[in-house]
TrEMBL record:
Domain called Lipid/polyisoprenoid-binding YceI-like: residue spans: 31-189
Name of protein: YceI family protein
Length: 191
């Protein structure tokens, strides 16, 4: 076999360029897995006019994000409804009951995007299906994103009506406001 350094260098160059191309494609695709330990999904509402905060402790998700071509992006976030924590175990147990979150019957809430678009303010809007307590509605969720070291951070919020999802006994309507705001700060790491 004839030794041909020029051919070897050419082959090596193709290998390097090919590998770089694969890395570039992976980066452009922006595949991310949610790191729940560093993330937060919180809930705010008012009871008798007093702000109340709670959070979900368990959730997971996968995000494909391409800021240059947002329509190529997608996300699926799933929340364990039984992990709702309002800071008191008696209240938590109450909220798991059928008249509230009904966590045995509906153990998960989710958001699955169908498309993503950019807005004029530099933020993005994820269009998709939000499911809670067995009801699925098309929702738009505005979010911003930025790099944080090796991670990508996605922040935004979603406002919903608890009555629309049959959350809460009607007897509570005079003391518990209908509006519920879900805030999220999701930290995701590249696959």
């Amino acid at each position: 076999m004839r030794y041909c350094p020029a051919s070897m260098l050419y082959g090596l160059r193709l290998l390097v360029l090919g590998t770089a191309g694969m890395i570039t494609l992976a980066y452009a695709a922006g595949l991310w897995t949610v790191n729940a330990d560093d993330s937060e999904i919180s809930v705010r509402f008012k009871q008798m006019g007093v702000p109340v905060s709670a959070r979900f402790d368990r959730f997971e998700g996968r995000i494909q994000f391409d800021p240059a071509v947002p329509r190529n992006s997608s996300a699926r976030i799933t929340v364990d409804t039984a992990s709702f924590d309002i800071g008191d175990e008696d209240y938590n147990a109450e909220v798991r009951k059928p008249e509230w979150l009904a966590t045995e019957q509906y153990p998960q809430a989710s958001f699955v995007s169908t498309s993503v678009s950019a807005d004029a303010q530099g933020s993005f809007i994820a269009h998709g299906d939000f499911t809670l307590k067995g009801r699925t509605e098309a929702r738009d969720i505005r979010f911003s994103t930025e790099a944080d070291g090796d991670a990508q951070v996605f922040e935004g919020s979603l406002t919903l009506s608890r009555k629309a999802y049959s959350i809460g006994d009607p007897d509570w309507n005079e003391v518990l406001e209908d509006e519920v705001v879900i805030n999220f700060r999701v930290v995701a790491t590249a696959d």
